[in-house]
């Protein structure tokens, strides 16, 4: 756990609806990023990176399956993890806006991954202390995976940021383009606040100092300049998404919507 980072605050018992909503917050972010990384399979710049991105995507997909299954169980309406993944409309998704942004190129993919990895490290370190045993168990496993993800993405941040002139310019351009989405990381919505009050999840506002320190250390080594903070007007976890999510879901949900209930 980061030095001085508080554990999840103990509070009142979390009601089922809050647990459902909070699980979707976490699960949707992992699901959408897994789908984005999956788009690189067969297209990465080298075989080793192709396999590494696929493995990260599988880790995130495993987290998403666990969380969406947990959410479906709590909801108690007969829906499954597949229903939540493939039969919801874009406005029903509550993932962080960063993860739905297109790959563009390898630089954008690595910057997006690095920023999210640093955030998930802070999140899972604290979520291990959730009063909800299933979330605490998920966090303990996911933390091990995320440490690998972070080593992978931060390594590429340094390699490309402090590489050739072209690689440096591409990385700085990607960082400048994606930085605005990090504002959402630390702005709590109603679900975040209620989850923290109930001891279900951490107070995300407390995560920002250690996230800043972690990110700035890597940016210095990568010779990249941290962009100015920008207050972004809309947030994915409030169901307010860019046009990229609906396009991605059209592909992701095609089989299930075309052949409802189909099984292998």
Annotation keywords:
globular; Ferritin; 264 residues; mainly alpha
Count of discrete domains: 1
Low-confidence stretches: none
What is the first-to-last residue Cα distance?
A: 42 Å
Considering DSSP H and I runs of 4 or more, what fraction of the residues is helical? 55-70%
Mean pLDDT: 89
* C-alpha geometry: globular
- The CATH first-level class comes to Mainly Alpha
Total E-strand runs: 0
Number of DSSP helical runs: 10
Biggest β-sheet description: none
CATH topology: Ferritin
Query: Looking at the chains present, what oligomeric state does this protein adopt?
Result: single chain
Task: Provide the CATH architecture.
Answer: Up-down Bundle
Q: At the fourth CATH level, what is the homologous superfamily?
A: Ferritin, core subunit, four-helix bundle
How does the helix and strand content classify structurally?
mainly alpha
Estimate the strand proportion.
under 5%
What is the string of helix and strand elements?
HHHHHHHHHH
Radius of gyration: 18 Å
Overview of the structural elements:
There is one protein chain. This protein has 264 residues and is mostly helical. The chain has a single domain (16-258), classed as Ferritin, core subunit, four-helix bundle (Ferritin, Up-down Bundle), CATH 1.20.1260. It is 61% helix and 0% strand. It contains 10 helices and no strands. Helix 1 runs antiparallel to helix 2 and helix 4 (106-127) packs antiparallel against helix 5 (133-161). It is globular, with a radius of gyration of 18 Å.
């Amino acid at each position: 756990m980061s030095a001085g980072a508080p554990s999840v605050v103990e509070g009142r018992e979390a009601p089922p609806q809050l647990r459902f909503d909070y699980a979707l917050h976490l699960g949707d972010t992992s699901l959408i990023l897994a789908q984005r990384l999956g788009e690189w399979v067969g297209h990465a710049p080298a075989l080793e990176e192709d396999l590494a991105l696929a493995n990260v995507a599988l880790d995130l997909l495993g987290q998403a399956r666990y969380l969406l299954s947990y959410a479906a169980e709590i909801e108690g309406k007969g829906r499954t993890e597949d229903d939540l993944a493939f039969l919801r409309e874009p406005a029903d998704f509550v993932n962080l806006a960063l993860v739905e942004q297109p790959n563009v190129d390898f630089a954008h993919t690595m910057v997006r991954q690095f920023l999210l990895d640093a955030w998930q490290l802070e999140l899972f370190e604290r979520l291990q202390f959730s009063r909800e045993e299933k979330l605490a168990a998920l966090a303990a496993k996911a933390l091990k995976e995320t440490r690998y993800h972070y080593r992978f993405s931060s390594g590429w941040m340094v390699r490309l940021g402090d590489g050739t002139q072209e690689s440096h310019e591409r990385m700085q351009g990607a960082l400048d383009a994606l930085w605005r989405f990090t504002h959402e990381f630390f702005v709590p919505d109603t679900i975040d606040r209620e989850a923290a009050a109930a001891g279900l999840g951490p107070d995300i506002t407390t995560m920002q100092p250690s996230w800043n320190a972690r990110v700035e250390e890597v940016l210095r080594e990568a010779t990249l300049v941290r962009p100015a903070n920008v207050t972004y007007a809309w947030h994915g976890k409030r169901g307010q998404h860019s046009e990229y999510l609906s396009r991605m879901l059209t592909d992701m949900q095609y089989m299930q919507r075309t052949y409802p209930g189909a099984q292998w």
